[in-house]
């Protein structure tokens, strides 16, 4: 099964697949696929970047949603706790957050093991560390967007759900959540674009993303301007594709609205 999936992914690769851009236009150049150029390495970097962003998004959204709910809680301590959380991770630079997660988690886990009597060196996977760090930052910003969306929904919507005999969970899923998505979507779309760019930070901890792969190619080939310009083009292409995707989702979310 994995072999079939790998073959399909290779065939559909837009850069180094049979009809990929590098395969068709990069022959005989530094971006040729295979041993002749850096096409395969850069294509792998694009996959890592997209995979990291896509894997981070649902985690960050789920955390942001829970934080937005907690910010509306009757419990004052809970509201204070989420306020401290969002203030810290919105105030810290993303790179420092990544370092804290990447190195801090290793120290924490090793300390726990040492306390339990296990002398073992622990290394956190760079992909996992990047995903956790970016999800934490994304959740701190998305929670504010979702909280504003919650406040934009009239209280009467909740009362209407109660009048129809719906439980709190049903009211949230059937009445509030569809409106919440529609209201929050523009802000979340902007945060997705920021997340896509922030994936470049993971190159610092050794993950083979676009920036790291093009950086290695630039140093080895001495074609720094070309490869960094190529990295810019790749990020711009991903942003353009994201814009089209977000536009489609926004039209789908507003399909029930009455046009005036």
UniProtKB/TrEMBL annotation:
Keywords: Cell inner membrane, Cell membrane, Membrane, Transmembrane, Transmembrane helix, Transport
Keyword Membrane attached: yes
One GO CC annotation: ATP-binding cassette (ABC) transporter complex
Keyword hit for Transport: yes
Matching Gene3D superfamilies: MetI-like
GO molecular function: transmembrane transporter activity
Subcellular location: Cell inner membrane; Cell membrane
Domain ABC transmembrane type-1 positions: 46-246
Membrane topology classification: Multi-pass membrane protein
CDD domains attached to this UniProt entry: TM_PBP2 (cd06261)
Entry-linked InterPro entries: AA_ABC_transptr_permease_3TM, ABC_transp_permease_HisMQ, MetI-like, MetI-like_sf
Chief localization: membrane
TM helices/strands, residue ranges: 48-71, 92-118, 124-150, 171-195, 225-249
PANTHER family, alphabetized: ARGININE ABC TRANSPORTER PERMEASE PROTEIN ARTQ, CATIONIC AMINO ACID TRANSPORTER, MEMBRANE COMPONENT
Family as reported in the entry's similarity comment: Belongs to the binding-protein-dependent transport system permease family. HisMQ subfamily.
Protein's UniProt name: ABC transporter permease
Organism in which the protein naturally occurs: Pseudorhizobium pelagicum
């Amino acid at each position: 099964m994995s072999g079939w999936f790998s073959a399909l992914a290779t065939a559909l690769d837009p850069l180094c697949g049979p009809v990929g851009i590098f395969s068709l236009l990069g022959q005989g150049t530094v971006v040729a696929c295979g041993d002749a150029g850096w096409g395969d390495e850069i294509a792998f970097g694009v996959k890592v970047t997209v995979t990291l962003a896509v894997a981070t998004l649902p985690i960050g959204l789920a955390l942001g949603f829970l934080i937005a709910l907690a910010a509306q809680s009757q419990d004052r301590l809970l509201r204070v706790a989420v306020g401290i959380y969002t203030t810290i991770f919105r105030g810290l630079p993303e790179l420092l957050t990544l370092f804290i997660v990447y190195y801090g988690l290793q120290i924490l886990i090793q300390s726990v093991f040492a306390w339990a009597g296990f002398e073992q060196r622990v290394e956190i996977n760079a992909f996992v560390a990047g995903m956790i760090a970016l999800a934490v930052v994304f959740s701190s910003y998305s929670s504010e967007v979702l909280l504003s969306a919650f406040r934009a929904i009239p209280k009467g919507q909740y009362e209407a759900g109660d009048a129809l005999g719906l439980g709190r969970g049903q009211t949230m899923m059937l009445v509030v959540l569809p409106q919440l998505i529609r209201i929050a979507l523009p802000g979340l779309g902007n945060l997705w674009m920021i997340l896509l760019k922030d994936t470049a930070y993971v190159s610092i901890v050794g993950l083979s993303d676009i920036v790291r792969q093009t950086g290695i190619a630039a140093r080895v080939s001495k074609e720094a301007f070309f490869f960094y310009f190529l990295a810019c083009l790749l990020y711009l292409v991903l942003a353009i594709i994201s814009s089209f995707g977000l536009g489609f989702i926004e039209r789908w979310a507003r399909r029930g609205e009455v046009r005036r």
